[in-house]
Amino acid sequence: MTVLRTSLRNFLSHKGRMALSAIAVLLSVAFVCGTLVFTDTMNTTFDKLIATSASDVTVSPAKVDNAQQTGTPDTLPASLQARLARVPGVAAVVPEVTSQQATVADGHNQDIGSTTGAPTIVANWNPTHTRTVGITSGHVPLAPGDAVLDADTAAKHHLGIGDTLRVIAGPGDFKVTIAGIATFKTTNPGAAVVYLDTPTAQQGLLGSRTAYTDFALNAAPGVGDDQLKARVDAAVGHGYQVQTAAEVQAQNQKDVGSFLGPMKDVLLGFAGIAVLVGVFLIVNTFSMLVAQRTREIGLMRAIGSSRRQVNRAVLLEAVLLGVVGSVAGIGAGIGLAVGLMKLMGAMGMHLTTADLTIKAATPLIGLTVGVVVTVVSAMLPARRAGAISPMAAMRDAGTPADARTGRVRATLGVLLTAAGGTALALAASASSASAGSGLLAIGVLLTLVGFVVVGPLLAGLVVRILGAVTLRWFGPVGRLAERNALRNPRRTGATAAALMIGLALVAGLSVVGDSMVASATTQMDRSVGADFIIQAGNGNPISPAAAKAIHAAGHLAHVTDRTDVAATVTAPDGTKDRTVIAAATPSYTDDLQAKTVQGRLIDAYAPGAMSVPEGWAKVHKVTLGDRLDVAFTSGRTAQLTVNAITSDDTVFDKGAMYMNIADARKYLPADKFPANNMMFAAAIPGQQSEAAAALKAATADYPQIKVRDQADYKNMIQQQLDQLLNMIYALLALAIVVAVLGVVNTLALSVVERTREIGLMRAIGLSRRQLRRMVRLESVVIALFGAVLGVGLGMGWGIAAQKLLALSGLGVLSIPWTTIGVVFLGSALVGLLAALFPAFRAGRMNILKAIATD
Q: Where are the transmembrane segments (predicted)?
C-alpha cells in the first residue's frame, strides 16, 4: 500500500509532465478503437441490409469458375417459375431481375452512380424489395418506362418525379421516367438503386422477356429453409445454385469482409506505427522523470526502500498513465469512428450512428494496448530507478552515463544496421519477387531497429554537422542550442527516432511512388503506339452500342477491340492453368508494342494461334510451335499453336497471352462472349486533334466511357498514385503528431531539468528573447536530426523496393527531390512549433527562484 500511495502521489504531483505522454497513449488507443468501432459499424450496416433482403430460399444460375465477363447478368428461364411453384412448401415464387453492370445517366447525361465504389443497381420492382425500401413519394412502377429511384441518389443529384433517366446496359440503351422515390428502411451503404417494371427490366437489362436473374422463394408456414432447399434441389436438378437465407447472408458477408478486412488491417497497421512512436515518447518521459528524481529516489533507498519497491513504484505510475490515457482514448476512438462515418457520408456512403457498434472486446483491446505499451515502455526507466543507490541522495540530480552500456549499444546498433543493409542489398539484387520481398521486410525491420539503437552514437556527428550548417548563424545562442542537443545523446536519439519512423515511411513510399510513375511513363513512351486509350468507368466493360459508336468515329486510321477471354490452358506437361487470354484485333500489335523473345507477335493473331509469356513458357517448358489445349469457359476447346513468346520485361499487359479476337469468337456462343474491356485508336497522321474531337463526340452519349490520349493516361496514373500516397501520408500524420508531442515533452522536461542553469544564464545577461531562441533552435536541430535519419533510411528502403519492383517491369528509379526538400522544411517547421510552449515557459521563469532551485 505504501508503494501504491507513493506512486499515486508522484503521479499527481507530476501530472503536468505526464500530460503529453497521456495524449500519446490517448491518440494511439483512439486510432485502434476508432478503427474497430468504424469497421464493426460498417459490418453491422451491411449485415442488416443483407438480412432484410434475403429470402427464405434463392434460386440463381449456377456459378461458373473463371466465368466470362459479358456485361449482361447470367439468367434463368422464365419457365422455371412454374416448376418452383409446384414444389411442396413453396408459398410464393418472386421472379427477380437485377444488374450491377448498367450505367444510369440523368437528363444532363451525367452518371448518377456512386463515386465511392458502391455499385449502381438496376432491378425490377417486386415484393422482396418492400422489405428494404418504402415508397415515400410517387408510386411504384406501374407502366413500361416507370422507374423508382432511391432517395439518397435523388437528393444528391437533385432529381425528382417526372425527371428522365437513361439506362445504358449490355443489350442496349433505354429511357425511363421517375415515377416514385424510395427510402431505405435500413441504411443504404451508398449504392445508387433504380427499380423498373418487370418487362422493361427484362428487355432492357437481359435482352429477353423470357428470362430472370433469380427466383426468391418464400417458405410456407412450418417449412424450414434447409428443408425447402432440399426439396427445390430435388425438383430442379443440377445446373442451378440453391441457397438458404443463411447461406446468402454468409456469402454476402464474406464478400463484404473481403473489402472491410484489408481496410481494417491497414488502419490497424498505421495505429501500430503510432503506438511504436508513442513508445519513444513514454520511454523519454519516464527516463527524464527518473533522472530528475534521483536524489528523491536515493533518499527512499537510504530509508529502507528496496530496489524492487522503487521499480514497482515507477511501473505503477506507468499503469496509472496507461489507464488514464486508455480510458480517454476509448472515448476519443468512438468520436473518431463517428467522424469517419460523417466523412464517408459526405463521400456518398451513408452510415448512421443508430448502427454504431461497440463490441465488448473493443474497450478491452484499447485498455490492454494502452496499459501494456505504457508499462513496457517504462520498464527500462524503472530498472534504472531501481539501480539508484542511497549515495545518490548526496549528489546533484542526474545519474552518470554508463560508458560500457553506451559502447555495447553502439556496437549492437552498428551490427543490426549492417545486417539490415545487407538484407536490403540482397533484396535489391534478388532474382525472384518472392525471395526478394522477404529479404526486403527483414532489411526494413533490422535497419529500423539498428538506427534506433545507434541513434545516440549518430547524434554526436549529425548534430554537429547540422549545427555547423544552421546554428552557427545565430552566434553564441546557436552554440548553446547545439550543446544542449548534444548534452544527452541518448535522449536526443530517442526523440529524433520517434520522428524518424514516420519520415522514413514517407520518404520510402515517395521513392517507390515516383519510380512507379516514371517507369509507367517510360513504358508508355516506349511501347504504347495508340493515340487514344478508351475505357469504361468502375471496371465495367464497354457496351456494344458504345463500341459501335467508337468504330464509326472519323479521322481514325484504325480502332482496336480488346477483351479478356476466360479459359483453361493445358500445358505440354499436363498442368491446367485457369487464366484469361487477351483477345484483340491484330492492330493491337501497333497499339501495344510488346517485345518477343521468340517469334513475331503478329503471328500470334493468325487463325489457330496464340502467344504465351516468357515466364510461363519457362515454367511449363513451352517452346515455339507447341500446340496447347485451350478450353474456353462456357465454350469449346481449341488446339492453339504457340507462334510467339513475349518478354516479361514490361509493365502493361505483363504476363498476358494473346490471340485474335475473331478467332476467339469461333469457340464461344455470342451470348457468352465478353464485351470489350478496353479499346485503342490511332489517328490518321496529322489529324490527332480532329480524331480526338470525333471520339469525344462519338462517346458523348455514354458518360461511362473515358477517352484519353497518352498525356491524359499518364496524368490518370499520376493522380491515382497521388491519391493513394496522400491517403497514406494522412494516416502517417498521426504518428508524426505523436512524434511532435515527444519533442514538446522532451523540451518541456528539459527546461524543468535545467531550471537552475537557465536562472544562472539569465542572471549573467541572457535575455528572454535569446533564451526562447535557444530552446527553439535546440528543437529545430533535433527535428532536423530526425529528418536526416528518416530520409536516409526511407530512401534506402525505397531504392531497394524499386530494384525489387524492377522484376515486374518498374525499372526506372526516380528520387522525388521536391518531396525530400519539403520533408526537411517541414521538419524545421515542426521543430519550431514543438518549441513554442517550452520556450515560452523558459522565458517566463523568475531568475531568483530558478537560481534557488535544487
A: 266-292, 313-340, 360-382, 412-433, 439-471, 492-513, 727-752, 777-800, 820-840
Non-local CB neighbours of 635 within 8 Å, separated by 6+ positions: 667, 668, 669, 672
Question: Which residue from 717, 270, 768 is spatially nearest to 520, judged by alpha carbons?
Answer: 717
* Residue 127 near residue 184 (C-beta atoms within 8 A): no
Q: In sequence order, what E strands does 601-691 have?
A: 609-613, 627-632, 637-646, 657-660, 678-683
For residue 183, the cross-strand partners are 134
Give residue-wise pLDDT tens across range 252-299: 888 778 777 888 888 888 888 888 888 888 887 777 777 766 666 776
User: What is the structure's pLDDT at 399?
Assistant: 45
pLDDT digits over 626-659, tens only? 999 999 999 999 999 999 999 987 777 888 999 9
The x, y and z cell numbers of residue 836, run together, are 513554442
Q: What local confidence, expressed as pLDDT, does residue 289 receive? A: 73
* CA distances from residue 481 to 214, 445, 473, 774 in whole angstroms, order as listed: 75, 33, 12, 5
Report how far residue 528's alpha carbon sits from residue 40's, in angstroms, rounded to the nearest whole number. Answer: 45
Q: Are 172 and 545 in contact (CB under 8 A)?
A: yes
**Residue 142 amino acid letter:** L
Identify whether the C-beta of residue 521 lies closer than 8 Å to the C-beta of residue 721: no
Cβ atoms 529, 593 nearer than 8 A: yes
Which of 131-140, 343-352, 384-393 shows the highest mean pLDDT?
Answer: 131-140
CA angle 787, 790, 794 (to 5 degrees): 135
Per DSSP, helices labelled H in 348-432 are: 361-386, 403-428
Higher pLDDT, 186 or 329: 329
What H or E segment, with its residue span, contains residue 524? helix 489-527
Q: Rounded CA gap, 59 and 78, in Å?
A: 12
Neighbours of 171 (CB within 10 A): 18
Cell numbers standing for residue 59: 434460386
SS3 at position 820 = helix
Please determine, for residue 105, whether its predicted confidence score (pLDDT) is greater than 60.
yes
pLDDT at position 383 over 70: yes
pTM: 0.80
Nearest to 592 by CA among 541, 641, 646: 646
The residue count for the chain: 854
**Residues 415, 420, 424, 426: is their CA dihedral positive or negative?**
positive
In tens, the pLDDT along 522-579 reads: 888 888 889 999 998 777 889 888 999 999 999 999 999 999 999 999 998 889 999 9
Kindly state the cell numbers that stand for 796: 534506402
Other residues' Cβ atoms within 10 Å of the Cβ of residue 620: 18
Q: What is the DSSP letter of 438?
A: H
Distance CA 472, CA 726 (A): 36
pLDDT digits (tens, 9 = 90+) for 699-758: 998 988 999 999 999 898 888 888 888 888 888 887 888 888 878 877 877 777 777 888
> Hey, is 585 helix, strand or coil?
coil
Closest CA to 368 of 686, 123, 597, 25: 25
Q: Quick one: which of 417, 489, 484, 482 has its CA closest to 458?
A: 489
DSSP-assigned beta bridge partners for residue 99:
122
C-alpha cell, 433: 519477387
Rg, C-alpha atoms of the chain: 34
The whole-angstrom separation of Cα 210 and Cα 226 is 29
CA dihedral for 847, 848, 849, 854, sign (positive or negative): positive
3-class DSSP state for residue 611? strand
Residue 724's H or E segment, with its range, is: helix 710-753
Grid coordinates representing 639 are: 488446339
Q: Are 150 and 165 in contact (CB under 8 A)?
A: no
Whose CA is closest to 451, among 491, 493, 514? 493
d(CA 180, CA 166) in angstroms, rounded, equals: 16
Under the banding of pLDDT at 50, 70 and 90, the label for residue 15 is low
Q: How far apart are CA 674 and CA 542, in angstroms?
A: 10
Residue with cell 459479358: 70
